[in-house]
Design goal:
Layout: E1 10-11, H1 13-23, E2 30-35, E3 42-43, H2 46-58, E4 63-67, H3 89-95, H4 111-117, E5 123-124, E6 132-135, H5 139-142, H6 147-153, E7 157-161, H7 170-175, E8 182-188, E9 194-200, H8 207-217, E10 221-226, E11 229-235, H9 236-250
Parallel strand pairs: 1-3, 2-4, 2-7
Antiparallel strand pairs: 4-6, 5-6, 7-11, 8-9, 10-11
Helix pairs in contact: 1-2, 2-4
Length: 257
């Protein structure tokens, strides 16, 4: 059976730039983007066109940041989608390639972040599972340690194109600032082999409810469409501060050491 033709809308670099400017994306700002290519419609040029549009809108003084997570660099005992046989676990741990910010591909964040990761001049942070990549003059300032905190310092704004609040990485920064369990995390060691470290347990559980309340109470620009996508634009600092107050009340978690 033949594939039906796309229903559109037809989206180009020019129409995306126009939509982003109408939404309120500003020249020269620092922007943390969470994106869904599929939500935008039929984009002529795909992810490359989206990245070009974002960079054109931000201009030469603006900086684009995206999450470039690599959740597959983790303990195979925890894999569920799909799981692997238990008899493989030891060998997977022993042979899993270490994280390399230059070549390790993203996983589970979509084609647009992967495109930014490989963009000329892109810089990527060092965390082996929750890295960010940036393009623009403030990419180096964002740095290798706690990029979200650096984005907060820079008064970055968050752009969500066709994505829900479950993808809002800024809320995770708040999790590091409120009582939360610490858990052992297994991953490939930088020098080879396997390591287990203790980190704050982060989860996007109830982020949808958190985002709903944040949107109700704080300055979120609701607009669009950008292409065919619903868009949200808001200050990262406001989102983190709101989550710091909301999480202990609505999603309290026992702090364990």
């Amino acid at each position: 059976m033949p594939t039906p033709p796309p229903t559109g809308p037809l989206v180009t670099r020019g129409t995306l730039v126009e939509d982003l400017r109408r939404l309120g994306v500003r020249t020269g700002e620092t922007l943390l983007a969470h994106t869904s290519l599929r939500s935008l419609g039929w984009v002529n040029g795909g992810a490359v066109t989206v990245v070009e549009s974002l960079l054109e809108t931000l201009g030469p003084d603006g900086t684009l940041v995206v999450p470039t997570q690599t959740g597959d660099l983790s303990d195979p005992a925890l894999w569920r989608d799909p799981p692997v046989p238990e008899r493989w676990w030891a060998e997977i741990r022993a042979t899993m390639p270490a994280y390399d910010p230059r070549i390790t591909p993203t996983r589970g964040v979509g084609v647009i972040p992967e495109t930014v990761r490989t963009w000329p001049g892109a810089l990527r942070s060092a965390h082996p599972q929750t890295s960010f990549a940036a393009v623009g003059p403030r990419a180096a300032v964002i740095g290798e340690r706690s990029p979200l905190a650096r984005l907060e310092d820079l008064d970055a704004r968050v752009l969500m194109l066709g994505t829900g609040y479950a993808t809002c990485t800024g809320f995770h920064l708040a999790e590091y600032r409120v009582p939360a369990p610490r858990v052992p995390v297994g991953r490939p060691a930088p020098g080879g082999g396997w390591e287990v470290v203790t980190e704050v347990s982060v989860t996007s559980d109830r982020f949808g409810e958190l985002g709903h309340d944040f949107e109700r109470d704080r300055p979120v620009v609701l607009g669009g469409p950008v292409g065919a996508a619903r868009a949200r634009l808001f200050p990262l600092r406001e989102a983190v501060a709101y989550a710091e107050r909301w999480l202990p009340v609505h999603r309290p978690r026992e702090e364990e050491f």
